[in-house]
Design goal:
The longest helix is centred in the first third of the chain and has 16 residues. The protein is an alpha+beta fold. Strands 1-2-4-3 form a four-stranded antiparallel sheet, covered by helices on one side. It has a single domain, classed as Muramoyl-pentapeptide Carboxypeptidase, domain 2. Helices cover 49% and strands 22% of the residues.
């Protein structure tokens, strides 16, 4: 079962706060500090996902990706085959909402995704990669390495 399956009212404005926070941390403490914080978030906040990945079970990661993109009405395709999980995001719900708010999307928005994903995979046989095809459209790949 998904550890953080929020079912209450959805407040998308947290994307605006996160966007501003990414910029603040990078400007105040540097990009390396931001990367460290984001990776720690992936490692610690999503600990149960990381622990299951370490044990060879990717089910919570798949459920997490599907639940949050579904809940935020993201346009995406999730494919699971063997030792690879691919999430193609056609329209990022965070970027869509930031544009709705009239905010400029942080240059660190996709870094956030790649570092949090890397943190979830840290210490496991899984590796992650984020390929940005255009703003709001990316392919996130999780691959189990033997």
């Amino acid at each position: 079962m998904l550890r953080y399956q929020e079912n209450n009212e959805l407040h998308l404005d947290f994307h605006g706060t996160t966007n501003t926070t990414l910029n603040y941390i990078a400007e105040k403490f540097g990009v390396d500090a931001l990367k460290m914080l984001l990776r720690k978030t992936g490692r610690d906040v999503y600990r149960s996902i990381r622990e299951k990945l370490a044990a060879g079970d990717a089910s919570e990661l798949v459920e997490h990706l599907n639940w949050f993109f579904y809940r935020e009405k993201g346009k995406y395709q999730l494919t699971v085959s063997g030792n690879e999980i691919t999430l193609e995001v056609f329209e990022c719900p965070a970027i869509r909402h930031l544009k709705t708010l009239g905010l400029e999307v942080s240059e660190f928005a996709c870094l956030q995704t790649s570092e949090v994903n890397a943190g979830m995979c840290e210490g496991t046989p899984w590796k992650s990669e984020v390929r940005v095809l255009e703003p709001g459209h990316c392919i996130q790949t999780f691959r189990k390495e033997d």
